[in-house]
């Protein structure tokens, strides 16, 4: 057996897990959360508010009458400019973009491109029915986070995702009236973090197909000075041309980038985020956004449909939210990196009579991951989950994401007044919208058909791309089908959640020693007691009942009912081992298992966690896996790898295997052979394991370097296990009323 890292990407040092107290989440009927009862002093019923700075000198809400329910947007009749530019985003073939640029200008872009200054270049854009040449365009890198990240040391990095960075072409940078079939700009996204090269294109298409106007896309091959630069995604720019195309009767309204209608945001900040009508000679006017923000500040549960419906298309907002949540868009409008505004979106104000604000999505590269790293952290993401937009948190303090101690924080999105009003009052409408989405663009058959067609379309370009491994790409695409199934399943579950209020759980004491160390019968794992190895008559054999061990050939091990320095009481379960280095990454392994009585199947469906106390001879990574017959009977004998990873020290600690967070790692799927595996979502497979549980498997890891090679030729060690028991959130661990206080979340 070989194993990989805990994930394909590591966001910082995850060597420490988080000590926390689990919050209690109270679910409210899907008719709304208005009467749910908010935490005292935190979330009172929305019966009033303040317009804050947005009310301005008048203290009143300006103008705006219009829709109170909402539609998908005023895009029924599209102008000739939209139809004209459609040739650029033809879906049946690849685009070719050829850039010719002076060597010194190209060197400046590649070495100092974080200045985002356009350099002069020639461009030729070629596709079916399209062959346009431009003798002078602007050319530069793009990407706010990427440019900061790739130049964070002061000089350009070419490692990992920085090996290829997105570009932007501006056709009218030097020639005022230059257009590519009506377009002033064209983005070329590098897709560096997407092994499939398909996620972003699919995400934009789902928004567009569901009636939420979004950028059009097309895969493109870029060459610079005659040299191939690889596969990119051509993405339409969100600008005045976009709004003119989508809102033909009123395309000259204000367009704002990444600024939210928060009542405490002042006029200057709104002006800084205005992207149209922003030239000084235009006399920029953001009174529309100030009034929208003021309306958010004073709207109540009783009147918000009328007050906010005059400013925002609520039906369109629900469609946007449905797609956003279904795509697991962790870097979008639920990502409040600032308490006042989230990320990656535009607002457009339709200025037709009765016109309102519409959301427009942007930068959808961080969508359709296998899990949402903020709301549903798994695998290598070790931070506490951020409550989703429909969960009112016990605190609005910003929460660290990625890992404990991170310097990146998210304010729970339900702390935002606009999102809170929508989830509180419109959940039934959101459910209906979500069901429409599931039957339409989010249907697995629809998405898988697109992926199949596009994968064939880009296959040759992938093979020719020096930065993409074709075999690895093929595997990523195959895995993507499973991820899509999981996304559909997760969104179906999300629609059933309704609103909920999160309340902090009171800290409960550990079970007293007389409970932890009470004598038990000599048997396998049981769910009705603490499995503490304190056998009433002592052990009748050296190894506990229903235990087993295994290791690769060079590693020796021994299992024992241990009475020497046990974790608790008079005895525990001990796995001793000696790793011997084998040349090759991750080749040394050992495991110990504890089965249920007679290895009988039992259901864990009424439990939410398994608690276990562990310690090691040194700080070690230990994977705790759930055993089940489904691995052999249903999935062709795959490794029994649904589990969680922990960092165990030399001091005894209580760890919690949260059943809703166990996962099947990618490196284990890599080992599947023909006829093996589960052809459906991981979440569904996880439920099968939980329903047919028959034991725990403990896998302590050798100490290795970053490449997986053992540091020492020989490494002796041990793992001790004690006080194994099942529990439920809010009811404590192991026995009613006995709370687990110092718990480590799995990494």
Using brief descriptors, characterize the structure shown.
28 strands; 23% helix; disordered N terminus; alpha+beta; globular; six-stranded antiparallel β-sheet; Jelly Rolls; seven-stranded mixed β-barrel; 17 helices; 747 residues; single chain
Topology:
Layout: E1 19-20, E2 23-27, H1 80-85, E3 95-100, H2 103-112, E4 119-127, E5 130-141, H3 144-150, E6 167-170, E7 185-189, H4 199-209, E8 217-224, E9 227-236, H5 240-246, E10 255-257, H6 267-272, H7 287-298, H8 304-309, H9 314-326, E11 345-349, E12 357-361, E13 391-392, E14 399-400, E15 409-410, H10 417-425, H11 427-439, H12 444-464, H13 470-495, E16 500-504, H14 513-516, E17 547-551, E18 556-562, E19 572-580, E20 590-595, E21 609-616, E22 620-627, H15 630-633, E23 643-648, E24 653-658, H16 666-669, H17 682-691, E25 695-700, E26 714-728, E27 732-733, E28 743-744
Parallel strand pairs: 3-8, 13-16
Antiparallel strand pairs: 1-28, 2-16, 3-4, 4-5, 5-6, 6-7, 7-9, 8-9, 10-11, 11-12, 14-15, 17-20, 18-19, 19-26, 20-25, 21-24, 21-26, 22-23, 22-25, 26-27
Helix pairs in contact: 9-11, 11-13, 12-13
- Helix-and-strand structural type: alpha+beta
Shape: globular
| Gyration radius, rounded | 28 Å
The largest pleated sheet is described as:
7 strands, mixed, barrel
Number of helices: 17
Fraction in helix: 10-25%
* End-to-end separation: 21 Å
* Overall number of strands: 28
Taking pLDDT < 50 over at least 5 consecutive residues as the criterion, the unreliable ranges are 1-32, 35-45, 49-77, 735-747
Strand order of the largest sheet: 3-4-5-6-7-9-8
Relative strand content:
15-25%
Q: How many domains comprise the coordinates?
A: 3
The residue-averaged pLDDT reads 85
């Amino acid at each position: 057996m070989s194993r990989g890292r805990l994930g394909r990407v590591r966001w910082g040092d995850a060597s420490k897990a988080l000590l926390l107290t689990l919050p209690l989440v109270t679910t409210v009927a899907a008719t709304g959360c208005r009467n749910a009862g908010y935490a005292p002093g935190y979330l009172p019923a929305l019966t009033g508010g303040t317009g804050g700075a947005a009310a301005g000198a008048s203290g009143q809400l300006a103008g705006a009458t219009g829709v109170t329910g909402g539609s998908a947007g005023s895009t029924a009749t599209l102008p000739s400019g939209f139809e004209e530019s459609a040739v650029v985003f033809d879906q049946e073939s690849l685009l070719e973009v050829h850039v010719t640029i002076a060597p010194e200008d190209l060197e400046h872009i590649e070495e100092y491109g974080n200045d985002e200054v356009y350099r002069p270049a020639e461009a030729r854009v070629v596709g079916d029915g399209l062959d346009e040449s431009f003798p002078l365009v602007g050319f530069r890198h793009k990407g706010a986070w990427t440019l900061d990240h790739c130049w964070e040391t002061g000089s350009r990095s070419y490692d990992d995702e920085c090996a290829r960075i997105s570009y932007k072409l501006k056709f009218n940078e030097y020639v005022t009236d230059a257009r590519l079939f009506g377009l002033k700009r064209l983005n070329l996204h590098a897709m560096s973090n997407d092994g499939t090269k398909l996620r972003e294109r699919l995400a934009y298409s789902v928004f567009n197909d569901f009636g939420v106007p979004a950028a059009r896309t097309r895969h493109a091959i870029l060459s610079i000075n005659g040299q191939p630069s690889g596969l990119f995604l051509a993405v339409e720019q969100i600008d005045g041309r976009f709004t003119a195309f989508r809102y033909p009767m009123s395309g000259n309204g204000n367009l704002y980038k990444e600024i939210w209608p928060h009542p405490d945001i002042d006029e200057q900040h709104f002006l800084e985020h205005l992207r149209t009508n922003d030239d000084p000679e235009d006399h920029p006017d953001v009174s529309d956004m100030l009034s929208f923000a003021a309306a958010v500040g004073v709207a109540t549960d009783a009147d918000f449909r009328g007050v906010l419906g005059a400013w925002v298309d609520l039906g369109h907002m629900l469609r946007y939210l449905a797609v956003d949540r279904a795509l697991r868009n962790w870097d979008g409008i639920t990502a409040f990196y600032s308490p006042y505004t989230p990320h990656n979106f535009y607002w457009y104000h339709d200025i037709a009579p009765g016109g309102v604000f519409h959301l427009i999505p942007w930068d959808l590269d961080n969508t359709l991951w296998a899990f949402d790293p903020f709301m549903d952290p798994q695998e290598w993401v070790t931070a506490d989950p951020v409550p989703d937009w429909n969960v009112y948190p016990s605190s609005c303090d910003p929460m660290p994401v990625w890992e404990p101690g991170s310097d990146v924080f998210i304010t729970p999105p339900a702390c935002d007044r606009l999102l809170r009003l929508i989830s509180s009052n419109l959940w039934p409408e959101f459910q209906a919208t979500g069901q429409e989405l599931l039957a339409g663009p989010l249907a697995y058959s629809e998405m898988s058909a697109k992926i199949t067609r596009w994968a064939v379309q880009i296959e040759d370009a992938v093979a020719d791309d020096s930065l993409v491994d074709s075999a690895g790409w093929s595997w990523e695409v195959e895995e993507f089908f499973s991820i899509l199934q999981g996304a559909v399943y997760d969104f179906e579950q999300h629609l059933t959640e309704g609103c909920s209020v999160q309340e902090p759980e009171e800290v409960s004491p550990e079970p007293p020693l007389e409970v932890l160390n009470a004598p038990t019968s000599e048997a396998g794992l049981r769910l009705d007691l603490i499995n503490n190895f304190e056998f009433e008559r002592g052990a009748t054999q050296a190894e506990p009942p229903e235990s087993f061990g295994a290791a690769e050939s060079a590693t020796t091990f021994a299992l024992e009912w241990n009475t020497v320095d046990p974790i608790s009481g008079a005895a525990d379960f001990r796995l001793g081992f000696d790793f011997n280095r084998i040349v090759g990454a991750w080749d040394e392994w050992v495991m110990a298992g504890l089965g249920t009585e007679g290895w009988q199947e039992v259901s864990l469906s009424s439990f939410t966690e398994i608690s276990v106390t562990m310690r090691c001879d040194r700080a070690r990574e230990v994977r705790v896996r759930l055993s089940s017959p489904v691995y052999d009977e249903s999935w062709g004998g795959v490794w029994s790898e649904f589990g969680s990873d922990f960092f165990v020290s030399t001091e005894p600690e209580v760890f919690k295997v949260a059943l809703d967070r166990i996962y099947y790692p990618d490196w284990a799927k890599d080992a599947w052979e023909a006829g093996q595996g589960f052809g459906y979502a991981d979440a569904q497979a996880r439920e099968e394991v939980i329903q047919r549980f028959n034991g725990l498997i403990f896998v302590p890891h050798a100490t290795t370097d970053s490449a997986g090679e053992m540091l020492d030729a020989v490494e002796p060690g041990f793992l001790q296990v004690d006080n194994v028991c099942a529990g439920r959130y809010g009811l404590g661990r192991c026995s009613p009323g006995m709370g687990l206080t110092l718990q480590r979340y799995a990494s």
